[in-house]
Amino acid sequence: MKNTAQPLLEEYQLGDLTLKNRVVMASMTRGRATNAVLVPTPLMAEYYAQRASAGLILSEGTWVNRQSIGFINVPGIYTPQQVEGWKLVTRAVHDKGGLIFSQLGHIGTASHPDHLGGELPAGPSAINPQTKSFTSEGFKDTLTPRELTIREIKQTVQDYKQAANNATKAGFDGVEVHAHSGMLIQQFLSAATNQRRDEYGGSIENRARIVFEILEAIIKVWDSTRVGIKFNPVAISNVGIMRPDEETIPMYQYILKKLNDYNLAYLQVEGPAEDLSGTPVQVLQVNYFSHFRKHYRGTLMANLGFMQQTANAILQEGTVDLVSFGVPFIANPDLVERFKYNLRLSHSNRETYYTGGEYGYTDYSSAVQEGVIGQ
User: Fold this and answer.
1) 236 falls in which pLDDT band (50, 70, 90)?
2) Is there a contact between 248 and 234 (Cβ–Cβ < 8 Å)?
3) Which pTM does this prediction carry?
4) Residue 4 and residue 30: Cα distance in Å, rounded?
5) Number of Cα atoms under 13 Å in the Cβ half of residue 366
6) Chain segment 242-251, per-residue pLDDT in tens
7) Which residue from 129, 41, 140, 133 is spatially nearest to 85, judged by alpha carbons?
């Protein structure tokens, strides 16, 4: 039965873009760029086009330069070949009436020499993040990296700018800065992985400096209303030693206050996957997203394993403006239609998340194909 009284299905004005609904497809690594030069493929174009009924699609995290690589079969956006590959994807999405942003990422110290021609990864400090990197030989422990020089930091900022410029050439509708999940930016923010004594270390303002240098560089290429950023301030698992500490809340309050001056497309905040009780950020356990709404005036997007009912509820109460969905989009390319008609969701096969072929990627059927709803 169709249900039109759902905030999820309402249009939303995102700068000069009109989203046909408030259902956003979250960035998800799927490991389908199975070629030596990490170029997006026609199979990837098909995958994204299948999901174009989302109000907005966020691409999988995409490498901004060769040094940023840290996971096999993930595409880049730093070479002309990669740009041409992404053109296939954006054209396919646009042909289906969709919108798509490129998520720009750099894994920093969480990489491995296997990805870098034998070179050590580099980041804010020569401190092992104590996590794992997915290589062609499986998961491997990270190593003690080398510290980036100031000149290299400046070059990395320019690499983000060039990647953002490449995203315009590739036909994307905007870009999102990947600043979560233990990536390079989060490594600068964390006192555990950033023990520099120059202008990029020490104080909250110094550790957050790279966030705003990257944003300033990107908005020289894109209007700020086409630029988003994603954080996960409370990640505990899978990020090694980068865990919430006593400075986490003041750090993000500082960042949010400054972000209010940028008129960005949105701020996306990922919620806690675990109980925060007993941690330095336990005050965020209750009404998590309200804490961010209190400090951020712009469009706020939430990501926290939402389903139809919980997403409609948080939109209805006005805490956030958009909700992003990850796993539900894997097995339900027509997730929006399933919400519209209150249909059951199909379940995805975890064993196929990163396997490289069409199995578990483009072969999930829609409700139309299943005969649940008509053409």
Assistant:
1) confident
2) yes
3) 0.96
4) 32
5) 18
6) 999 999 999 9
7) 41
Compute the average pLDDT of residues 145-171. 98
According to the model, what pLDDT value does residue 238 have?
79
Q: Which value, in Å, is the radius of gyration of the alpha carbons in the chain?
A: 20
- In tens, the pLDDT along 117-140 reads 999 999 999 999 999 999 999 999
Q: Which of 229, 295, 294 is nearest to 256 (CA)?
A: 295
Residue whose entry in the numeric block shows the structure tokens 């072929």: 357
Phi, psi of 294 (to 5 degrees): -65, -30
Identity (one letter) of the amino acid at 369?
Answer: Q
DSSP-derived 3-state class of residue 338: helix
Which residues, 6+ apart, have CB-to-CB distance to 285 below 8 Å? 272, 275, 276, 277
Q: Say if CB 255 and CB 208 are below 8 A apart.
A: yes
Give the separation between CA 375 and CA 364, rounded to whole angstroms.
17
**Spans of all domains in the chain:** 7-352
Residue percentage of the chain with pLDDT more than 90: 93
The answer to whether 144 and 126 have CB atoms below 8 angstroms apart is: yes
Domain range 7-352, CATH architecture? Alpha-Beta Barrel (3.20)
Length of the chain: 375
